[in-house]
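Sorry to interrupt, but I need a hand with the structure work. I would like you to pick a protein and set down its sequence and fold. Please put the record directly below this note.
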Amino acid sequence: MQKVKLIGLDLDGTVFNEEKNISAVNEKAIRQAIEKGAEVLPVTGRPYEGLPEEFLSIPGVRYAITSNGAKIYRLEDRKVLHEDLLTREKTLEVLEILKDYPVVPDCFIEGRGHMPEAAHQMIPEMGLAPAMTKYLLSSREYFPDLIAYVKQETRDIEKITINFYLEADGSRRLGEEVAARLAEVGGTNIVTGAIHNMEVNTETATKGTALLKLGELLGIARGQIMACGDARNDLDMICKAGVGVAMGNADPVLKESADFITKTNEENGVAYAIEKYV
């Protein structure tokens, strides 16, 4: 196989353990890969302001892909190298559907999440992991009427995340019904980034497309790109990268499509994969 020169790493469920931390073992492996000449970057469903400083502060981390591939950033000056955004009209079409359901929509605009004020009461009751609840509530901007806010916005939207209440069996309450309604909205791509959510992008904004685009900008061939992930929004990059790595805790669909299945996020699976291929 070709030498790996570009490594795209999902965050939640991949680089992060369940406490939303990057282990010393994973950090060391990332540092060593960079020292060997590889570009290593987060490829995440999070917005720019949700990128963890403990990852960005690793010497040599120069790029980030956010919002499921809606934006590629050069970190030194926060320059957007590529973007693929939802129009406000398309966003409003989705938000109007969501008004009928007990969910919390989250619109990513210019690197930050935007939620209705009702999220303060709803998110803690949804059954999410404590670390995820804390992250969501501490990193968003809130509005009495999210639809009214989007209507007056002049900027397009990177992604819409839909947060659901979880049933006792871990399923999303009304998830299938919401998915069916959203499928009627043309020009979008709907994936799952975590057990509690659905994520809406343009039909062309995916992690895999963005990772290959960055490779093109850097002169790195597909066969020299490695991607690691665990959730359905990682499937595209697992399939498109030269080396697709599924975490040991990954969705079964990713494991079926991956070139390699590494250890879980609690067992430093990222480091294990880097040591194997880099």
